[in-house]
Amino acid sequence: MSTTAGVSAGEIAVRSILIMADGERSDFDELIHPTAVNREEISPPDGRVGGPAEFYSIAVWLRTAFDGLSYDIHHVIADGNFVAVNSTMKGRHVAPFVTYTEGGDVDSVFPPTGRTFASTQSHWFRIEDAHILEHWANRDDLGQAKQLGWVPPTPPYLFRMARAKSRAKRALRV
To answer: What is this structure's pTM?
Structure first.
């Protein structure tokens, strides 16, 4: 089903995934509705502001931790203004990856391993007026964790995680 300007809802959803890897802030302003909501709450709390700013902050957060971030799109299914996209996210873990609780506290910190990963994801979107209005995702976090050496954790890696979590908590207080 088409939205405005002859661009389909599926094309908008796919583009919103691809710009996570290399899009500029202006790309997010163009695609993401000013009141858009991301239903994933593991990202940094300072970026949980809604709209293009939130989606761009998530992209920067991912790009910081994962060098060479890219997405392969496998399937796109649209039903009116709802779109589902099956994809694979790829990258190399080069910086601490910090996840946060719903309340914004540091949850876990995964120090860089230098390993690469390719993990499947499904993204769900609601599109209005050729803009992303809502986003949900299901990811293969366990598969990604295994590929990156986070699971099963070795005692030295657990120590590195504890040190990295302490640093991340201190950084939040600054």
So the answer is: 0.92
